[in-house]
Amino acid sequence: DLANHSELLTLLTREQSLRAAAERRVSQTNDEIEELSAQLFTEANEMVAAERKARVKLEERVEVLERRDKEKRERLAVLEGRLGRIERVRGMLAGGGR
Question: Could you give the CA distance from residue 12 to residue 30 in angstroms, rounded to a whole number?
Fold first, then answer.
């Protein structure tokens, strides 16, 4: 009976040791998961911030290009108007010279 009791104590001690080791591994895994989650959250925030910055820069560039396009169209309209007047004057001069 004493041998059986000793064997049970040995098994209990071994079981407790294995359980403690398993709990340490679970705790380490949970810590790693928390750390990785925090890193992932930080990286996601950085990516979102970088995307916003890039979008703002792109929108500013589009604004500049649209403004330049509008200015060019306005200048072209002025030049076309002047060209029309020149052609009318030429037509009048050519017609008057006959």
Answer: 26
d(CA 89, CA 94): 8
Q: Is the pTM of this model over 0.85?
A: no
- Look up residue 42 and give its DSSP letter: H
Spatial separation of the C-alpha atoms in residues 7 and 19, rounded to whole Å: 18
Distance CA(18)–CA(23), nearest Å, equals 9
- DSSP label at residue 53: H
Cα 18 versus chain centre, distance? 46
What are 20-60's pLDDT values in tens digits? 999 999 999 999 999 999 999 999 999 999 999 999 999 99
Q: What's the one-letter identity of residue 2?
A: L
H or E element in which residue 97 lies:
none
